[in-house]
Amino acid sequence: MMSKKTKALLYNFVVFALLFIGARYLVSTYFWYQGIWISVAAFVITLLLSPKFQAVKTAHGEQIFMSWLFLKGVKKVG
């Protein structure tokens, strides 16, 4: 069984990776950037748009919470 901290880390990585791949494709398709600047632009876009997952110890045990630019407040995950 994985700990909640490990799950939160994996959630962060998977969501960031998926958004980065999509952002890199969109930047390379619709902008004039070349070389490493495509990846840099995609990284900055993904850094701003990706949700943040965090494991927190509460009175009910350890739980995973998510905060995101497009959601108001903090949401409990799982």
UniProtKB/TrEMBL annotation:
The keyword Transmembrane applies. It comes from the Bacteria. The chain crosses the membrane at residues 9-26, 32-50. Keywords: Membrane, Transmembrane, Transmembrane helix. This is Uncharacterized protein.
